[in-house]
Give the backbone structure.
Amino acid sequence: MRGVRKSIVVSLVGVVLLAPAACSDRSGTAVSEPPATTTVSAADPTGDEATTSASLPYTETELQVTGSTGRVTYDVLIPQIEGGDPAVTAEFNESMRAALQDQIDGWGTDAFTLSSQEHSVAHIGEHVVSGLLVTSWNADPPGAHPTPIVATVVVNADTAAPITLDDLFPDLPAGLQALSDSSARLLPETVAGPDFERSGIEPTEANFANWLATPAGMEIHFNDYQVGPHAIGLVTITVPWDDLADVIDPELAPVVSS
């Protein structure tokens, strides 16, 4: 997962929470209150309806982040979660904000804009939460076409820690080679076709940095141009967990597949 750092809180200029009403601070920037939510829970044995936030299920929400650094202007919706274990919720939400901040900070010295393309809490499992963020990068003034930028976050719901490729594969080179081999088998059946770009699946961390944990397998999201031309769009494959059984950490296998 590119740019995911454990428990790093990223402060963004001009963060705006989606809400039905807003007020203004001294600088004139709109500051909205979080949307009201209603949760219905089962009564406890005493008949009380009260419950703690940790006992509530995780639910998907979103955060609108807007602002400008002078060089970069951004207006992006990022996936967030509510409820559940507060430590897990905080880790996931902060990691998603950090992923966006990496995109704001990490693209050269030219002016550009970032806007929303796709965002989702892709999977909320018993032991894991996965999120996807795809922004649209465009030169300022606009260039030939926007470029999508992909980021993913995977958090262990048992430990409230992000799961990295290093965590997933005790022998990282062996794990990356298994991903490369599976990609070579799966990509010909995608829009990339049999003539996909081979350099995009070499066994490097950069090539497999964007992944999600799902019950079906390790969902790999390739970057624009990584395995084919821009015209085919972003390409995704799902590597079955069985393909990785010999290289995955046995303690994490039941976590990521939940």
Observations:
- Confidence is low (pLDDT under 50) at residues 1-53.
- The helical segments are 86-105, 165-168, 172-186, 253-256.
- The chain has two domains: 59-161, 163-257.
